[in-house]
What we know:
Strand content: 15-25%
Radius of gyration: 22 Å
Number of strands: 13
Helix content: 40-55%
Largest sheet: 6 strands, mixed
Distance between the termini: 30 Å
Number of domains: 2
Structural class: alpha/beta
Shape: globular
Strand order of the largest sheet: 8-9-10-11-13-12
Amino acid sequence: xxxxxxxxxxxxxxxxxxxxxxxxxxxxxxxxxxxxxxxxxxxxxxxxxxxxxxxxxxxxxxxxxxxxxxxxxxxxxxxxxxxxxxxxxxxxxxxxxxxxxxxxxxxxxxxxxxxxxxxxxxxxxxxxxxxxxxxxxxxxxxxxxxxxxxxxxxxxxxxxxxxxxxxxxxxxxxxxxxxxxxxxxxxxxxxxxxxxxxxxxxxxxxxxxxxxxxxxxxxxxxxxxxxxxxxxxxxxxxxxxxxxxxxxxxxxxxxxxxxxxxxxxxxxxxxxxxxxxxxxxxxxxxxxxxxxxxxxxxxxxxxxxxxxxxxxxxxxxxxxxxxxxxxxxxxxxxxxxxxxxxxxxxxxxxxxxxxxxxxxxxxxxxxxxxxxxxxxxxxxxxxxxxx
Length: 387
């Protein structure tokens, strides 16, 4: 089993909170991680709420939960029973011992948080992302494989690129045709597939709801925005908001969107092989989205992730703000990257603690004027400096 970077933090939080809600898209490894955690707790109880037999045990949740106060109770796919959050509140209040509940959810941030708001102060939230470079990629070859196939474990570990591609195509169809209806989302699978593919073609670009709505056959901008909310809340698309410092400039205020897993991005665009990817027009935007996710996974507590762009052309791909400290990151798919004047203007506007260019290189080297070119593997240490 690949050791997940989140495991130690999850154990730490379980030692403090009565319950933890672990979020993440389906097939990302939540169940595997939770079973490993449960194995360290004697008598831990694991219920999969997609199984009728397990759901039946919770027919009277107040009685069931009270009978198992001495155990860690793991509830998988908790979005299948959102009504459970109501009895969980008094049960936690009756015994606030840390590490009582581990709730696994695929419904996504906003949708699940709204239903779990009654547990505020009683549970902590963590998100398990697809496999990270820091977990699996000690060299450029492995990094390319992760970027090409994406971080869903079954795709990354598939015995061939062909099977990895087939798994991702199946994942997309299952998500649209089965998972979303189970969550109560009544959008046509074909319509949402078209919308998702549009976002893939527009990877890393500003989101224009009106323009995308027209491309969907005349849908309103509010409909396009709702479709985006669905994919953001199910943690399959990232809506990257602009960084808006008070610099007296006319700033771009629309968000950028990224298909979060690079492997799903490539499947949506029918890119089956690494050679096809490297010759595809999306290659630079794909690499940028891949780096955005690596940065997001290592954000210091309370840090904000965004991008910076002005109407005059100053631009920084990624800006991480932690209190008064700022890190500026430009992303280039080149082993010998160059940057534009807009990059230097953005650095002058933002005055970050450090500015780097992330590229597919093996080791760090200086670019110019205090800016270094760094590999993906350097991101965790750079972000630690902001903490």
